[in-house]
Amino acid sequence: MPNRTRSSRRVVVVAAVVALGAGLLGGCAEDSDGGGGAGGGKKDTAGKTTIEIGTFGVFGYKQAGLYDEYMKLNPKIMIKEDVTERNDTYYPELLTHLAANSGLQDIQAIEVGNINEVVTTQADKFEDLSKAEGVDKANWLDWKWAQGSAKDGKTIALGTDIGPMAMCYRKDLFKKAGLPTDRAAVGKLWAGDWQKYVDTGKKYKAKAPKGTTFTDSAAGLFSAVNNGFAQRFYDEQGELIYQDSPAVKTSWDLAMQAAEGGLTGKLKQFDKSWDQAYANGTFASVACPPWMLGYIKEKAGKAGEDQWDVASAPKPANWGGSFIGVPKAGKNKAEAVKLAAWLTAPEQQAKLFDKQASFPSTPSAYDMKAVAGAKNPYFGDAPTGQLYATAAKGIPTLVIGPKDQQIGTAINDVGILQVEQQGKSPQQGWDAAMKEIENAVDG
Asked: Model pTM?
């Protein structure tokens, strides 16, 4: 999931994350315990063991009914989910608890942008899941399994979702702006080139319905473009290259075109204003990995049903995806390992996609009916299973470094927002982002 959040959600969903996502997803959102439960390591009056799961954004396990299903299969288990809305709040807290060896949940989610740092610096704080019952390395995409594994071969986190890229758009707003609404025709507008997407935004702006913009944010555009490159912030030797990276330069230039061209809603993704913009229908398109579908459905609500649709993205990319691991300091490690293995099995990943649109990191799930035949009624029965499976085949193997999440956050939430929301020049925004990154990577 997302810088999410992702999830959720990813958002979700997150997405999420991701997103979490996460890009993705501050503060506590809600607890989900399937009907109550005591704290970790304790048993309630019915003699049930409570497994606590720490997540960010909208992971979708509750919404997809997976917690309820597992508790029916295991009547002596109670599941309690502790949700933090944004990963940039959740992750620092996770690091603090890992350092103190206390305050940890039985299962902890980890966003893809943080997985390298956790695997590199915190692996000894997590259980090795590679030999857990029900866990088979062959079930996962090779690169996804590798991301959650340390150099000594121990796998400290199991992959949940991945984030193959599509584009979500509002048919009603496209129609009013004189643009096509059929998803195949929409995909052709920008096929093969993100510059074509920005150019489509200029056409939209010329006839835009009052009070709307073409897309939500320049930061969202930056992330979508950037995640289509194998090397972004780090090279394959683990050296920082963000200042001279072709990926970052291309993505920044397109984001600045959108920001200065008035094509964006000047929103910060996963903030309440972003959620409200979904509810009000004030932007017409958004870069849309699978976890975003659940997020849109939740935030846009009934009013957005069948107004949103899904088309192919200009180029293959992966945005988001998450992992779950079992801290050694958890109070119910044996039961937590069983639950983590079950939640990430192909069958459950397929169910999660069916209910929440989080796309599986287990390829065998792609042939299951829940994925292969998936059509999303909220999005006009878009064939989301086929769309995302096709997109997943072209995803480059992203080079992830220990500070990926922090670098992305600095560019998006400092550099780009200064241009969008404060009227700074692109150079001023870039300089501010570079200063923020220097503090993050040297800290």
From this structure: 0.77
